[in-house]
Amino acid sequence: MTVSVSSQMMLFLFSMGIGGAFGLVYDVLYLGRLLSPCGRVLSFLWDCLYLLACGLFTFLFLLAGNAGEVRFFLLEGELLGFLFYRFTLGVLVSKAMRWFAARTRSAAAEAGRRLKRPVACAGRRFGLFVSQKCGQMKKRLPKDRKVVKRCLKPARKVMYNLFHRTHYKTAGPNTPKK
């Protein structure tokens, strides 16, 4: 199988583009880290998932573009594309994401301050409503138990017991044997 120089050059450029896309995905995950209060363990798990996804995508790219042959220049192209993105456009994107995260956090804090009093008031009203209903239920519970006991039929008058007592006699000491 012959490999032309032009096809290798195209694969190298594609691999640089994929590396740049990996950098962009990493920046998006960085924004998620900035917005969520996650610890080191969760950050480590996100990084592991990112590396697994990059490895899988690289494998699929090599499988489709180079018939599964691993060539060093393709891996080098991905690394160069990632680094090129990181030190050029990635710097601007990171600054923009930090600015966006700071604005989002301050807006969320302001919204929390504004919503704190109405939510607390609604919570107190709901708690009062629930406690009133529980008090009413406690008052009605003894009366309801008496009503339920009165409404039930005695066991000897239930239809099932009447039917089985007359049709299916159980073998006892006074029943004749066949």
From TrEMBL:
Membrane-spanning ranges: 12-32, 44-64, 70-93
Pfam families (UniProt xref): Spore_YabQ
InterPro entries: YabQ
UniProtKB keywords: Membrane, Transmembrane, Transmembrane helix
Keyword Mitochondrion attributed: no
Protein's UniProt keywords contain Ribonucleoprotein: no
Protein name (record): Spore cortex biosynthesis protein, YabQ-like protein
Species of origin: Ethanoligenens harbinense (strain DSM 18485 / JCM 12961 / CGMCC 1.5033 / YUAN-3)
